[in-house]
Each structure stands twice: as structure tokens, then as C-alpha cells.
Design brief:
By secondary structure, the chain is an all-alpha fold. It has one domain (2-184). It has nine helices and no strands. The protein has helices spanning 2-6, 11-26, 37-57, 64-87, 89-95, 99-103, 105-128, 134-153, 160-184. Helix 4 runs antiparallel to helix 7.
């Protein structure tokens, strides 16, 4: 049945889905041996599946604004994946090279927060370019601020609830912030 629906998509969407699928399948068979590949594969697949597929399927032109949104999405997922790599330090030490293993926990947190800072700069730029309204700008800045707090507080001693609920929930927190900022503006 999924094959039927796959062929209902436009060709660019099908290619993006196939690329994501192949990338996901190749990861355990050698791609994971490439240093730092885990976080980039996760970020890329999330960016493709949560935004690029929609762009392709709806025939939205690839403009500067779309590219900036894609970069922000990639950097956001990249940043909130770092706490999971911190959590998995003991397990990953035997299997693959991650950012926390290479740079250490504190520098990894700086890298994650820096990625979010770039997201803030992109959002501010988009606001000045009138491609992001004040309500959305506020929601994104709040999201990036809260995400940076969770990244800075991440360590191996945090329980599974911290990662599997709180960090994972950051992806949907933006909608809550959109409601709040919509009431303000």
C-alpha cells in the first residue's frame, strides 16, 4: 500500500524520499564508521522529511527564504541531537565517533548553543527581510532559548525522561510559543 502512495507523489518528492531511505539504510552498514556522521544523517533526514518534502510536493520555489528555513531546521535538529550523544557517551565510545567524544561534553554544548544562535540570526534576518512576522520571530527565539537551556543542562546523569520527553518535546514546543506570541502580536 505504501508503494501505491509513493507513486502518487511528484518525482522530486519521490527522489527525496528514496534518498532519505537509502541514507537511513546505509547508516548501519558502514556510514556510521564515518566520524560525526550520526548527527549529520539525523539532521539531514529530519530536515528533508519535515520541510523539503513539503516544498517539493507543493511546488514551492527554492528561494533564499526557503534555503534559510532549511538551514535553520538542520541546525535546530543538529543542536537538539547533541544531548542524545552526551547521554550515549558510554555506549558510543565503543562504536562510533561523536561530537561529545571528540570535543568533550562542554565544547559540544557550546557547539549546540552556537548552532541555535545561528538560527536566531537567521530568524532575525528573515524578519528584516519581511519573510518572518513578529509573532513567528518571537516563537522561534523562545524555542531556541529554551532549547539552549536544555542543551546546557544535559549530562550523562539525566534520566531517560529528560531526553525522551523534554528534549524530544522541543520539536513541538514551537507550536505552543506560536499560540502565545499570536496572542501578543
Amino acid at each position: 500500500m505504501s508503494g501505491y502512495y509513493f507513486f502518487q507523489f511528484q518525482a522530486p518528492t519521490q527522489i527525496a524520499i528514496a534518498f532519505s531511505g537509502v541514507l537511513s539504510l546505509l547508516y548501519p552498514f558502514g556510514l556510521r564508521k564515518v566520524p560525526f556522521s550520526k548527527i549529520f544523517v539525523i539532521s539531514l533526514i529530519w530536515t528533508i522529511s519535515t520541510m523539503l518534502l513539503l516544498v517539493f510536493e507543493n511546488n514551492i520555489p527554492i528561494t533564499q527564504n526557503i534555503v534559510l528555513h532549511l538551514i535553520s531546521r538542520f541546525l535546530f535538529v543538529f543542536a537538539i541531537t547533541i544531548p542524545f550523544d552526551i547521554r550515549d557517551l558510554k555506549h558510543d565510545a565503543q562504536n562510533l565517533e561523536t561530537i561529545p567524544l571528540f570535543f568533550g561534553v562542554q565544547k559540544s554544548k557550546v557547539i549546540g548553543v552556537s548552532a541555535l544562535f545561528i538560527c536566531v540570526l537567521i530568524a532575525i534576518f528573515q524578519s528584516f527581510e519581511n519573510s518572518l512576522n513578529s509573532s513567528n520571530l518571537l516563537a522561534l527565539i523562545l524555542l531556541y532559548f529554551v532549547a539552549s537551556i536544555f542543551i546546557r543542562k544535559s549530562d550523562e546523569s539525566k534520566g531517560e525522561m529528560y531526553f525522551s520527553f523534554w528534549i524530544e518535546s522541543l520539536c513541538i514546543l514551537v507550536y505552543f510559543f506560536l499560540i502565545i506570541s499570536g496572542l501578543i502580536f
